[in-house]
User: What shape does this take?
Amino acid sequence: MTDDELLLETDYTSYANSCRDPHIAPGDDLVECRRQRDHDDTHGTRAGGRALRWLAHQGLGPLP
Ligand SMILES: [Zn+2]
Assistant: This one.
């Protein structure tokens, strides 16, 4: 998925229908995945004009 495709998906997905996986972005901002729920591949959201992606189970500290 390209950045443009990711940004398009986040823009066209309502908050209620989005995945909302939490992630600590660079700068300690808490963001939530805004891709469609049950999406494949990495989580992602819009950060200003950029696409931000992260893998599942990363960003909230180490796994147990
Ligand atoms: Zn997600």
